[in-house]
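User: Round two. Same drill as before: sequence, then structure, for each protein.

Assistant: Same drill it is. First protein:
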Amino acid sequence: MTVIKPNFLVVGAAKTGTTSLYDYLKQHPQVFMPTKETFYFQSALYRNNHLPYPAQRPAEEIVFEEAAFLKAYSGAGSYPVRGEVATGYLYYWRESIPRIKALLGPDAKLMAVLRNPVDRTYSGYTFFSRDLHEKLTLEQALAAEPQRTADGWDFMWHYVAHSMYAEGVRAFQQAFPRFQVFFFDDLQADPAAFMRQVFQFLEIDPDVPLILDQKNVSGAPKSKAMQHLITQENPVKKMLRPLLRAAFGREIRHRMRTWLKSRNVGEKDRMTAEQYNALLPLFLEDITALEQLTGRDLSDWKRAKG
């Protein structure tokens, strides 16, 4: 029996438009994507981690076994592009690269989407504060990051470290000749043109019409009571959870939860110029290294706010 494998991966990063990218890719008739992310190529990191959610993601969201990972692609033989949009593989490049190369080979097409690291850091913070999981101020949360990391908190809580891209980009460039870097700035400026570039990279029809709208936007909740009901453990969720799991697959449940949260998102949180300028020096060296690796002028990323 022929084993059908993915031939394309988005390897990160989180809060760089990956949810929108996944939605747009799913609309293309030549692309097969059974789920947004499985965490399979970094799954070894979760085997002995028993922190409760939200410090660590639930085990049910992670695919640990190769057979289960490949089973999702068993019906994808007629699709020229088969893959996954992931958020952690670039960050955990030491773990993911050997496993990706062993299963998919060095010729797999891989891409990363990168965002201004200060903006990505703040978006990562507001992602959890929006859902009422992050109880600390931005400054307190950044001070707590080293201890949270040492204690095994999920990479999404590594606000600053997850925004350091150069080391991971260099490693993927060296390991995979068909690795390509894209930029969130371009996705925001012109989603249609951005997706044409992605489709050209994947060597499929670049002119497929798409429904383009932004997904998974961070912002303050309109109703904290509603957000608490959606995101926090409570008697209503405990009662509904087994019914929803019996009736719907993980992907549909995820879309339902995302839709409910999006309905309750109010005005977008804005970082102050003082906060931006305080964070910027942390990333200047990494941005310069990234410019050299990608050939992209990132001077706008290095400019302080007035």
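Second protein:
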Amino acid sequence: MNTVWKRKDLVGIKDLTADEIRLILDTAKSLQEISLRPVKKVPTLRGRTVANLFFEPSTRTRISFELAEKRLSADTISFTGSTSSTVKGETLKDTVRNIESLKVDMIVMRHSASGAPHRLAEALPVSVINAGDGINEHPTQALLDMFTVQEKKGKLAGIKVAFIGDILHSRVARSNIWGLTKLGAKVVVCGPKTLLPPKVESLGVEATTDLEKAIRDADVINLLRIQTERQSECYFPSIREYATSYQINQDVLKHAKPDVLIMHPGPVNRGIELSSDVMDGPYSVILDQVTNGLAVRMAVLYLLSGARKKSENK
């Protein structure tokens, strides 16, 4: 593959080509071994500064990005919305411009407003990486999910992936749909009718409210939690009823392939979308997703840094 990364930013999967997605996955594969070395560090981003701006709670994504930056020898600035001047009335744009004036090279941003990273990327000359924006996209999560499936199954083309849960509010589902369909996977989304986006089939996926139908012949089942923090109204009678109808447990898995992969972007609500015995069982690759997230985020930082260096040298 002769694809060369030319983009300043990574704000979503929707606008990427299939070859660009493959380039990120291939780059992540080549960077995996860094974490296996006695000294887990390379000088790739030495002298570069990355600002991590997290205006929403995060554990896995924030730590993963911070560790990826340290693995590549970048200097980092990290803060959350609750500790920034935005709580005093400062606008997001002014906050980021102040950070930019400190001559940072990249900004990793999570925000509750859909489109916030896109607006920053358009306004600022530094590279912007979307770490999750509202209910829009979460590109690095989708990339690490695709990386994990490819690692375990050997391919993405022709693989059937079933997403179960709150599709309506899930940025993870959206980014995965864009990426998986571009790489030839078959995607099925399943959940209560109230949690399926209108006309979701227009994205090239199959939609159903029948859990057994969704997981039949699936190579991968990716569970999504009920995002109550993004719901302004009640979309189903109760959590108990949801779990009764859509929880993945040992009984439900009788309808799936014997080598099915169980995935979840986290945090997992044990006993709701997923039973503990399945989460901790042989089907689960949830911890592999966390491990692979480090390599994928290193790859994104590496590629964006290279693209910016080229633009600066023109």
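Residues 18-136+291-312 form a domain with the Rossmann fold fold (CATH 3.40.50.1370).

User: Perfect.
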